[in-house]
Amino acid sequence: MRIHDHYELDFGRDDVVEVHRTDRTGAGGHPVYADDTGIVLAEISDRGEVRMLASGGQQDLPSRVRARPVQPH
């Protein structure tokens, strides 16, 4: 899988958030993606592996999230 500029993060139960690539990289060296609010942050590898990142205190980060590449609107 290659690196894309936009992904949909699927949290299950019809909960989907679109994120775009930022200029940051995560601890694993992969690009960090954010939604328009900056609240949803995720590091997504070139293999489509997702690691959610905390954007503030007291967040309960999900462990099973799927990333699907999308074309920007």
Describe this structure in words.
The structure is a single chain. The protein is mainly β and 73 residues long. It has no helices and six strands. It has strands at 6-10, 16-25, 31-34, 41-44, 50-53, 66-69. The chain has a six-stranded antiparallel beta sheet, with no helix packed on it. Strand 1 (6-10) and strand 2 (16-25) form a beta hairpin. The model has no long low-confidence stretch (mean pLDDT 92).
Contiguous uncertain segments of 5+ residues: none
Determine the structural class based on helices, strands and strand pairing.
Answer: mainly beta
Major beta sheet summary? 6 strands, antiparallel
Straight-line distance between termini:
22 Å
Keywords:
6 strands, single chain, six-stranded antiparallel sheet, about 70 residues, mainly beta, about 0% helix
Concise account of the structure shown:
0% of the residues lie in helices and 42% in strands. With 73 residues, the chain is mostly beta strands. Strands 5-4-3-2-1-6 form a six-stranded antiparallel sheet, with no helix packed on it.
Task: List strands and helices in order, with pairings.
Blueprint: E1 6-10, E2 16-25, E3 31-34, E4 41-44, E5 50-53, E6 66-69
Antiparallel strand pairs: 1-2, 1-6, 2-3, 3-4, 4-5
